[in-house]
Amino acid sequence: MSAIQGTLSQTFSQLKKDPPGMTGLVVVTVIILVTLLAGIIAPYDPLEVDVYDRLSSPSAEHWLGTDQLGRDVLSRVLLGGQIALKVSLVAISVSMAIGLALGMLAGYGPRWLDQVLVITFDTLRSSPTIMFALAIVAITGPSLNTVIAVIIITSIPVYGRVVRTQTQALRDRDFIKAEVVMGASTFRILSRHLLPNIAPPLLILASMDVPAVVGMEAGLSFLGLGVSPPAPSWGSILYDGYSYIRNSPWPIIAGGLPLIAVTLGFTFLGESLRDIFDPKLRKKGADS
Amino acid sequence: MSALLSVRDLRVRYPLDGGLASLFDRESASHVDVAHGVSLEIERGETIAIVGESGSGKTTLAMAICGLAPVLGGEVCFNGELLETGKNRRLLPDRKRVALMFQDPVGSLSPRMTVGKLLAEPFHIHPGFSDNPNRSAPDLLALVGRGEEFADRYPHQLSGGQARRVSVARALALEPELLIADEPTAGLDVSIQGEVLNLLSQPQKKMGLGIMIITHNLNIVRHVADRMAIMYLGRFIEQGDAQLVLDRPRHPYTAALLSANPKPDPDAQIDRIELRSEVPSLLQRPAGCEFHPRCPYAREQCGNSFPETSKTGQSRTFNCFYPLG
Amino acid sequence: MTASSLEIRDLSVSYATPRGRLQALREVNFKVPEGGITGIVGESGCGKSALISAIIQLLAPNAQIDSGSVLLGGENLLELDAAQMRGFRGERISAVFQDPMTSLNPVLTIGRQLQDIQHRSRASSEEKRALSLKMLARVGIPDAEQQLKRFPHHLSGGMRQRVAFAMALMTEPSLLIADEPTTALDAPLEVQIIHRLQELQRDFGCTILFISHHLGVIAELCDQVVVMYAGEVVESGSTRDIFHRPAHPYTRRLLECDPARIGQRTASLPVIQGSLPDLVELPPGCIFADRCSETIDRCFNKHPRLGGIQHRAACHLAGDVK
């Protein structure tokens, strides 16, 4: 598909002109590469306990020091990254897909369905995430899947609302009416005319959502509602480090820095992409 | 044989969503009648021009025939068959046989589709028309006088005239029997207006297409229309042969509208009929003849009842108590 | 030279584009005599937006004035600094555009906006209000007192355009630029507004530059006409000259295309074949040559200069035509 290639290379050339956006792209690429290769890069087994070498400062052997059980912090951070990205990838794609479907139904479907869905979205959104998580953990026990489920359920209304508003705005536009008059089926209108116009802003929203989800996972794990020990999550690394902060600041720094990097990287990239794809901000190509 | 399109006493009513204010202000109207009893017939191979000021309901009439506006009453027959109304009281015309060109040519093209895909779209929707939709697109481009290099462009890269041509191609793709063109020359330069209108008249001769042109450009009416109908506040107040109406309007509003048209001749002598104020709001429809508050010839009777339709000669109708000679 | 005449001398404006410099205006020359209404006829791509933005000095960042001068009452606007120019805009030059909704603030009342535009005046707020009422009445708005309290969206398109004219004339400018102000309006309103504009012009004595592609409106309203094509003035003269004795083939073609000038019903309407030339790589000869039906060899090699004194045309054959 040369059209997609064209869009990609065009996007990239515009991204190059925007330093924060380019920084974001580099940071995000590095984070993704490093976490994908975490199993190979990690110098130690992240679960390997060494009680004689507890809470050590960074050294040639342990670049980021060790934690209270003598586990290599760098290896734990790397593997924790895998968990963080897995959670965000799964949670965001599932909630985006469901939100997209429900949002388009609400925006294009009959009015009663719209009202039912909007009330459901608002009810879900009005309940505090932590309370919600506690309730689910009480039923299922803490696990990675619980974290993912909580994030999905609380994110669906966010995507659903955005998609609904977009769909409603597009529904009355002439190009949709023109397809109706031509006899296009509802499915065709939704999939070929509405979706391509809703998807780009939604993908940008999703990319800016990654830090929020990573933060949420860390927060839930920090509270002991997420990934169960001894599996390394950035949240549990922070929690462990927090208890021993007087003895050694290194686990806290090592667990916090990637969170900051993910937040800044995805936010910079997302904002830059949003500006590039916003037709109002986009400079018209030479119309020749 | 029955007419291609026959509209009887069509009424279109939009509900008004007053929001919070309507809770407190019960007096305000809960609906607005945009078409208020419209009747017209279109024969095969004929062009009818619908003329009127903005807000007169011209576009709504087109939308209603295409099933995009809620119909309150009246009936619409296509080739003698009564059109059903579906959910929300919208008409259900046969999409292949009725085509609509929107006022905004760029806005009516799906923004993330290339011209090539946009032109193949009618054939994808109605697979019976072409064995290979993607191969038919270049033929359509040729039909409207554009080459294949055009196929990769996106709507926002087209000029008004180019987008208009693409709309014409899409509208004619399925060889419809009726084409409704809403302001087909709006925003076009004078030097290319003719191109678009000529594109429409060619297939008309070939396939006996019936065309309904909605326009406020009176200059083109004489050249493209066989008949014309003048709309005011959701009603036709005069209808008839285009030449006759243009040369000898009977309704004062028609005369005023025609006289208001500036002539491209600095020495032209125009006897203008000055109209008082502006088109009234549809929410406050005047009693009697809706035009009487602005009419220079209005008398007492005009404010009391709506004039019956008068018929003179062949298909010439008007609604006025005191028609012009 | 009088206080409010406008003269454009050898004005060239170009835009930086990825393909090279797009020469939007090339040596544009015309005079708008004081207290007259001059119409600019031009189809899309004729360079009218570049011309307006050069006159009011609000050019896009990628635009550049390559040469020439814009003289208002003998003063070259292009030599003014930013602060002086700000003083000129609104005070001595006003503009009215096609869509009044874009120039009116949707969240402020009409009255508020009419007062705000008098911010340079030392008058008391009662005096400003009185002037607002007077101006609204002058542009033909009934019930002005009530209208002051209303918001732009309460008004019809025609009323909004009248308010825009009231605002533009409030400071009694020397020059009023009207860019397609009646294009979006229905014919009866269009006629009302151009007549009102003629009256206002007589009363205020300002110079009006009226841009439109509607030949009928130009013929009815203007004393002088400038015909532009692809960034050049191809013909200028009195309205009668242009409409009765057009000297440039483009003007003639344009007039022929106007269905209002064709009395008898025709099966197919005339059009100007071809398309605008590439303004990045200009043809060496006449800018209209490849769409013109009356060319000689010289038309493709040598660029014609604007000839004549009162009635001017940029055509090698213009002399023969007369």
Order of H and E elements of chain A: HHHHHHHHHHH
Helix amount of chain A, in percent? over 70%
Biggest sheet: strand arrangement of chain C: 6-7-8-3-9-10-11
**DSSP strand content of chain C:** 15-25%
Give Rg of chain A in angstroms.
22 Å
Describe this structure as you would to a colleague:
The model of chain A is unreliable at 280-288 (pLDDT under 50). Chain A has helices at 2-16, 19-36, 38-41, 73-108, 111-126, 129-140, 144-171, 174-182, 186-222, 234-243, 250-277. Chain A contains eleven helices and no strands. In chain A, helix 7 (144-171) runs antiparallel to helix 9 (186-222). Chain A is an all-alpha fold. By secondary structure, chain B is an alpha/beta fold. Chain B contains nine helices and twelve strands. Chain B has helices at 21-24, 58-65, 115-125, 133-143, 160-172, 190-207, 218-224, 242-247, 252-259, and strands spanning 5-15, 31-42, 47-51, 71-78, 81-82, 98-101, 178-182, 210-215, 227-232, 235-241, 310-312, 316-318. In chain B, the strands form two sheets. An eight-stranded mixed beta sheet of chain B has the order 6-7-8-3-9-10-12-11, with helices on both faces. Chain B has a four-stranded antiparallel beta sheet with strand order 2-1-4-5, with helices on one face. In chain B, a hairpin with a 3-residue loop joins strand 11 (310-312) and strand 12. Chain B is globular. Chain B starts with a strand and ends in a 7-residue tail after the last strand. The model of chain B has no long low-confidence stretch (mean pLDDT 86). Chain C has 322 residues and is α/β, with parallel strands linked by helices. In chain C, the strands form two sheets. A seven-stranded mixed beta sheet of chain C has the order 6-7-8-3-9-10-11. Chain C has a four-stranded antiparallel beta sheet with strand order 2-1-4-5, covered by helices on one side. In chain C, helix 8 links the parallel strand 7 (175-179) and strand 8 (207-212). The mean pLDDT of chain C is 88. Chain B binds chain C through residues 53-54, 159-160, 189-195, 197-198, 201, 216, 218-220, 222-223, 243, 256-257, 260-268, 272, 275, 277-279, and chain C through 43-44, 142, 156-159, 186-191, 194, 213-220, 239-240, 243-244, 253-255, 257-262, 265-272.
Task: Give a concise summary.
Chain A is built from eleven helices and no strands.
